[in-house]
Amino acid sequence: MTHYDVVINGGGMAGAMLALGLSQLSQADGSALRIALIEKSLPEQNLHPGFDARSIALASHSQDLLQQLGLWPLLRELATPITAIQVSDQGHIGQVNLQAQDYSVPALGYVVELNPVGQLLYQQLQQHPAIDLLCPAQIQAWQQAPDKVTVTLDGDDQLSDRQFTTSLLVAADGNHSQIGRQLNLPRRQFDYQQSAIIANVQTAMPHQNRAFERFTPEGPIALLPMSGGRCSLVWCVSNGRANQLMDLDETAFLCELQQAFGYRLGRITRTGTRHCYPLVLDEVTRPWHHRVVLVGNAAHLLHPIAGQGFNLGLRDVAALVEQVRQVLSSVGASSENPTNLATPISVANHDDIGGYQMLSRYWQSRQADQAELVGMTSALALLFSNDHPVLAAGRNLGLMTMAACSSLKHMLAWQAMGKR
Ligand SMILES: Cc1cc2nc3c(=O)[nH]c(=O)nc-3n(C[C@H](O)[C@H](O)[C@H](O)COP(=O)(O)OP(=O)(O)OC[C@H]3O[C@@H](n4cnc5c(N)ncnc54)[C@H](O)[C@@H]3O)c2cc1C
Fold first, then answer.
1. pLDDT tens across 357-388, in order?
2. Start and end of every FAD-binding domain (predicted)?
3. Which residues pair with 229 in a beta bridge?
4. 184's torsion region: left (phi>0), alpha (psi -120 to 50) or beta?
5. pTM over 0.90
6. Distance, CA 320 to ligand 1 centroid (Å)?
7. Is the minimum distance from the CB of 198 to ligand 1 under 6 angstroms?
């Protein structure tokens, strides 16, 4: 039976980048890892669940991580830099402006469209000799044993009933993770009773690589700069209001948007197709089990208010790659026969890939970051999506204080860049 060092279930942003990051690692130190990536949807499908019409902001720290994973040279061409961020509150004078040049960085972050990123990642996945891309396929059954996990696939004629073993099974299968649900791990959930409407919009004035976050009594609106002078809209409102906005024709929708966003970019002239996402917090509070770990949205689904969901997921990916790298270096140091494609890695000191020590070290390195970001986004979502007059006044006071106090402003900039 084929043995893989790592099997990843789910090939969205987290799973695809993990597979490529691990494969890069095996090239770097001469040892070869065997990696399988299982994905249920074909990459060319327009409505691929992992690579849909969304555009996301990558913090500047994520660019550093992508560089370490060997992925930034691929993505650079698709990324629009954010050189300034303006935070404002509708109907109040408080406003904060952050500029990349004040922090001596070329950009505070970058915006990428998930669909073209997905196409690019899949080209790489298909070409890499260390990665078996098992797609379209799903896991039919899996069993944990002390030294391995056995996986049986369900897929087309070629893949159906195929069975293999792995040292580590990674669940990167998104918020409704099949593996996460089957393990019944402890989780914290909260329904914000809000939805995010996304669309690409065209404005009369050029965005000049500025991103805008505007708080309104109905909820926050973000406009992120994109290529071709377009902006990516993320508008968070109550579920009822979202249904109304989704039902409007283009002219009426633009009119509502203009009223809420104002004229910072002049007239908003056009909008592309609108998509709507229900917003919930879903955090797995201990996202690992024997030889199984959850990463990305499988481990934590956040409110998009601070644009941090995938930035957090990417830090999971980078931390897991680092733990595997450490195991490989200890194997290299303790073994005269370096691992190769034909020999599954097996280390006598129980510190192997997917072993208890590796996964507990992984979680020690991730726990505080996950808890902090879940707490921060939930607090922001509740504070900034609330039309209570006391909270609105507090918000405005907060923005004015931040604008006047450079250390508070720096904290906000550091947070936006993902640096800690
Ligand atoms: C409106 C909105 C705006 C956002 N803005 C930002 C932002 O600005 N910055 C930011 O960092 N993040 C942002 N996010 C969050 C970001 O989009 C997600 O965190 C990220 O895309 C999640 O990637 P993932 O790979 O973890 O999960 P997913 O994208 O859910 O991928 C899961 C993959 O697993 C596959 N799969 C599912 N089930 C199975 C199965 N049983 N078997 C095999 N395969 C399976 C799916 O097909 C999919 O490909 C935003 C989210 C939303 C909704």
1. 999 999 999 999 999 999 988 888 877 766 66
2. 4-329
3. none
4. left
5. yes
6. 18
7. yes
